[in-house]
Design brief:
The chain is globular. By secondary structure, it is mainly alpha-helical. It contains 21 helices and no strands.
Length: 486
């Protein structure tokens, strides 16, 4: 009956928005967005700070540096060693116990170990930094499955695409803000350790704010109006599954070609995206010879473009689907193709660049990174198309596989060569990433689908629906027979 009610609400036009423009749900979305904003600042900050941590002449002689570290690519990738391990379990746990307190603990642990980075570097060298990053990765594996769970419960059906783009766009804004802020602090006489203390302290404060004001669902919020609560829950079928989790059809998921198309598309995005995230500052420093402050500002520009592109394209794609300009499957393929082929083309151009004009290089990085915003209307939302009942589990499973490539991408730079002042090294790095973007993009176009899969519903539910249809047909036959006898 819950599914029937959800379908009725989905097709009904009588569900009215609450009269107030800003409701409790909007504050919840701000809480989620800010959580991702700060979390990605914590995650990204080492990509900028590592330049200051390994330089020979710091801004102030009292600032410790470690120019002997020759494993910076390994340090940068170590976050993902833990990140890939917890996501599937995080999705399942958040469905059973609610996401709020998992998110609070994620913020507390990640922030505490961010503050610990300078001390661990002094005590244990690069190994100490990697320990901090691995622990941060383990607990941040809860981040997206829990946020995804909260969005599903707080988003009215007719606002879901817009809200998802706003919330999931906040990591890009977090990266764009983090890079110049970290660059300015690291280049100052305060030094790189202060930058870790600032972001770590901000995360601890935000964890307390989130613990006080966030709630798992509208039904648990004490001050939400009945009107707004009804508006959210009457059109949100996920809420009806809160007390009874649909069994996970693992065999069907693992043998589904559309699921693997999403996996492959995600692998390309993670390889290319995290290679650029961790290595743009290094490229700007070693090839473009930018100082740290200019470096961090220009490195942030592509992520600012990515954020605003996502904000614009999400509602536009929804509008085109509503107007039947494209069907859902075609729109997913088009968006994901642009998110794959445009970065691939930009990286190929960058690989064979001989005139290292700062404006041209920046534009190419903006295209390579910014175009990836279209994955939010491509493979990311495709999980909801295939199996709405299992979207959280799919997100955890696919993200776990994808983030193996988040490790391999940055590591590949170190494996391909050690001299980061060598343009040939960067040519190889960019061509490899471009090939992965284009090859995986083609695989997605060939094998993806936006049709709801047969395994979305549990077997007993499908049998019940078929029985109801059969009984309905038999009843209609009896009525027709009775009418003919009269």
């Amino acid at each position: 009956m819950a599914d029937v009610a959800a379908d009725t609400a989905r097709n009904s036009e009588t569900v009215l928005k609450p009269k107030q423009l800003i409701g409790v749900r909007h504050y919840q979305f701000v809480l989620m967005s800010t959580t991702l904003f700060i979390s990605f600042g914590i995650r990204t900050s080492l990509s900028v700070a590592i330049i200051s941590m390994t330089e020979e002449t710091p801004p102030d002689p009292s600032i410790p540096t470690y120019p002997e570290w020759d494993n910076t690519d390994t340090i940068l990738s170590s976050f993902f060693w833990g990140y890939i391990l917890t996501q599937v379990g995080a999705g399942q746990l958040s469905e059973y116990f609610g996401p709020k307190w998992f998110l609070v603990m994620t913020m507390v642990i990640a922030s505490a170990f961010h503050i610990a980075v300078p001390g661990m570097a002094a005590a244990l060298g690069s190994t100490g930094v990697m320990i901090c990053r691995i622990i941060q990765g383990l607990n941040q594996g809860f981040l997206f499955p829990c946020i995804h769970n909260m969005i599903s419960k707080w988003s009215p059906l007719y606002e879901r695409s817009m809200i998802s783009n706003l919330v999931y766009g906040s990591p890009n804004l977090g990266i764009a803000v983090c890079m110049p802020v970290m660059g300015a602090i690291c280049a100052s006489k305060a030094g790189w350790p202060v930058a870790f203390y600032v972001y770590g302290g901000l995360g601890l404060v935000w964890a307390m704010v989130f613990a006080i004001f966030a709630e798992d669902s509208p039904s648990l919020h004490k001050s939400i109006s009945k009107e707004e609560k009804y508006y959210i829950e009457s059109s949100n079928s996920v809420t009806h599954h809160a007390t009874k989790k649909v069994p996970t059809p693992w065999t069907s998921i693992l043998t589904s070609l559309p699921v693997w198309a999403i996996v492959v598309a995600g692998c390309a995005n993670c390889w290319g995206g995290h290679t650029l995230l961790t290595e743009i500052p290094s490229y700007m420093s070693n090839i473009m010879n930018f100082d740290l402050n200019d470096n961090s500002q220009l490195s942030a520009l592509p992520y600012l473009a990515q954020y605003f592109l996502g904000i614009v394209t999400g509602p536009l794609v929804d509008r085109m689907i509503e107007k039947k300009t494209f069907n859902i499957t075609s729109s997913r393929k088009i968006c994901n193709s642009l998110a794959s082929f445009l970065p691939g083309a930009a990286l190929i151009y960058l690989a064979f660049l001989e005139d290292f004009n700062p404006t041209l290089v920046t534009v190419l990085f903006v295209v390579a990174v910014g175009a990836s915003a279209l994955i939010q209307s491509g493979y990311l939302i495709n999980m909801l198309d295939l199996a709405p009942n299992h979207a959280g589990t799919l997100l955890g499973m696919i993200n776990s596989i994808n983030n193996v490539f988040s490790i391999l991408g940055p590591l590949s730079v170190g494996l391909l060569g050690s001299d980061k002042k060598d343009p040939i090294l960067w040519r190889t790095v960019f061509l490899l990433a471009a090939g992965i973007y284009i090859g995986c993009g083609l695989f997605y176009v060939l094998f993806t689908s936006a049709e709801v899969q047969s395994w979305n519903e549990p077997i007993d539910r499908k049998n019940k629906v078929q029985k109801e249809i059969s009984n309905g047909v038999q009843t209609e036959d009896r009525r027709n027979t009775k009418s003919s006898n009269c």
